[in-house]
Design a protein that fits this description.
Elements lengths: L5 H26 L5 H35 L15 H16 L6 H26 L18
Helix pairs in contact: 1-2, 1-4, 3-4
Length: 152
């Protein structure tokens, strides 16, 4: 698995919160009967654009990690299933099984599935990326040992 900085994912999650804060006055204005609607229109547009951009990045993150898991030999269906309602649960389960294999059972498939389902975007990628970064490959020592008592 490719190591990625968790701080990048945290910053994108923070951007989502900022996007929501831009949209919050719009929701309050709608409750007022739309009197302040024009004042908050641009802020709301910025908020929606921030949310859309961050969601696109997290979808891209799921795509890239699913390709990496598939390249390690685990059976994950094509990514287009991620976008089909109800079928995406099947894709998410197969993804979770792949994560369990890649992390060498440090994360069980049911835990990964529930984290993705309950925490969702943006928390699930941050948690999963932490475990992906901890997956290490053990390199074999290819050097021959040097004998200590060699005759001269």
């Amino acid at each position: 698995m490719q190591k990625r900085k968790i701080t990048n994912l945290v910053l994108i999650a923070a951007l989502q919160i900022v996007g929501f804060l831009f949209i919050l006055p719009f929701m309050i204005a709608m409750e007022d009967g739309g009197q302040m609607l024009d004042d908050f229109l641009y802020g709301t547009l910025i908020g929606f654009l921030i949310l859309i951009a961050t969601q696109i990045y997290f979808v891209y993150w799921y795509y890239k990690t699913s390709v990496e898991i598939r390249n390690k030999g685990y059976n994950i269906p094509i990514f287009i299933l991620y976008f089909i309602p109800l079928v995406n649960f099947y894709w998410l389960w197969k993804y979770s099984e792949g994560v369990e294999g890649v992390t060498k059972s440090k994360l069980q498939a049911i835990v990964v599935f529930l984290v993705n389902f309950l925490a969702g975007i943006p928390l699930a990628p941050i948690i999963l990326q932490y475990y992906y970064n901890n997956v290490t490959t053990v390199k074999k020592n290819t050097k021959k040992p040097i004998a200590k008592n060699t005759p001269k």
